[in-house]
Amino acid sequence: METTKRICGLVALFSICILQAQRKDIKGQLTADDDVEGIHILNKTASKFAISNADGSFIILAKAQDTLVISSLKYENKEIVITQFHEDNETVSIQLVEKVNALDKVIVGKLLTGSLQSDLENSDAKTDLNFYDLGIPGNVKLPLTQNERKLHDADGGSWGALMGGPFGGGLGVNVHKLLNRISGRTKKLRAIVELDDRDKCINRLRTNYESIIFEKDSLAENLKNEFFLFSQEDENFLKLCEQNNDIELLVFLQQKLKAYRKNRESEDND
User: Fold this and answer.
1) How do strand 40-43 and strand 91-95 relate by DSSP bridges?
2) Residue-wise over 159-179: b if at least 16 C-beta within 10 A, else e?
3) Quick count: other Cβ atoms within 10 Å of Cβ 30?
4) 220-228 long-range Cβ contacts below 8 angstroms, 24+ apart
5) Rounded to whole angstroms, how far apart are CA atoms 119 and 252?
6) CA nearest neighbour of 247 among 218, 212, 219
7) Nearest to 176 by CA among 101, 81, 54, 70
8) Mean pLDDT on 115-130
9) Burial class of 72 by CB neighbour count within 10 A (0 to 12, 13 to 18, 19+)
10) What DSSP state is assigned to residue 59?
11) d(C-alpha 197, C-alpha 205), whole Å
C-alpha cells in the first residue's frame, strides 16, 4: 500500500512537471487611458501571477487554454483565455476598461428658457450653503498625487471580497491587496509617498524661511541643499510637518543647522 501511494505521488508530480514544461513565457501588454503600473495578472489555470510594469508590460508563464484574470481597483476585472495564436507568438495584448459608477436614475428639474431674468424668477435656487455654514466637517483635502493614487490602488479597500467574483461566490480574500503586500510593492509605494511628503514640506520651508534661517549664519548654495537634505532625513521631521506648526519647524531647522555645522567641523578635523 505504501509503495502504491509513492508511485501515485511520483506519477502526479511527473504529470505536473510535464504540464508546466509545456507552458512558456508569454509577453503581455496592458493598455488603458490611465496608469497601468502594478496591475495583477493571474493565470488561474496554472496558479501563476505577474505584476505589470510602468508601461503596462508583463511576463507570465502560460499556454493555450489557460485563463488569465486581470484585476485592479481602477479597472474592471477582466478574464482572457490564451489562444494557440498567443502561445505561438508568445505575446498577448489586453485592453482595460476604467470602472464607472453609474447612477440609478437622473432627475430633471425645470427647463430653462434662455432668458436670464425669466429663468431667475422661475428658479427655486437659493444661496449656496457650504459645510462651514452648516457647522459640519467637510472635505478640504487636496486631490491625491500620482504616487498616492498608486498606493491607494495597490493597498486600498478592505481585506474581504474584492476577488470573490472571478473565483467563485461567497466572501473572498482581497487578492490584489495581498499580492501587493507579498511582492513588496505596497512597502515600496509607501516609501515613495513618504519621500514625496518630506520633499514637499522641506520645499515649503525653504520658500518661506530660508532667508530667516541663514540671516546670520550663511552657507554656500550647495551646502544649503545638503543641509536641507540632512534635516528632512530626521525621523521626527515628517511628524512635525503633519502638525503644521511652522514655529516648531523653524526652531527644529535652527537646531539642525547647529548639528549640521558640528558634523562638518568634525569631518574637516578628520
Assistant:
1) unpaired
2) eeebbeebeeeeeeebbbbeb
3) 23
4) 223/264, 226/260, 227/256, 227/257, 227/260, 228/202
5) 58
6) 212
7) 70
8) 52
9) buried
10) E
11) 12
- The total number of residues written for the chain in this structure: 270
C-alpha–C-alpha distance, residues 148 and 195, integer Å: 11
| pLDDT the model gives residue 162 | 42
- The span from the CA of 48 to the CA of 66, in Å, is 10
Neighbours of 250 (CB within 10 A): 15
DSSP result, 32-52: -SS--TT-EEEETTTTEEEE-
Instruction: Supply the DSSP string of 84-102, one letter for each residue.
Output: HHHHHHTEEEEE--B----
What are 83-114's pLDDT values in tens digits? 999 999 999 999 999 887 554 555 455 555 54
Decide if 151 contacts 189 (C-beta within 8 A): yes
What confidence tens digit (pLDDT) does each residue in 173-226 have? 777 888 888 888 889 988 898 888 888 888 888 888 888 888 777 788 888 888
- Cell numbers of 109, please? 428639474
In this structure, what are the phi and psi dihedrals at residue 139, rounded to the nearest 5 degrees? -90, 105
Amino acid at 258: K
C-alpha cell at 59: 511576463
3-state helix, strand, coil in the chain (%, to 5): 50, 15, 35
Cell (9 digits) for 195 = 519621500
Helix H segments across the chain? Answer: 2-22, 84-89, 116-122, 131-134, 146-155, 175-183, 185-213, 221-232, 237-243, 246-269
Cell 524661511, located at residue: 209
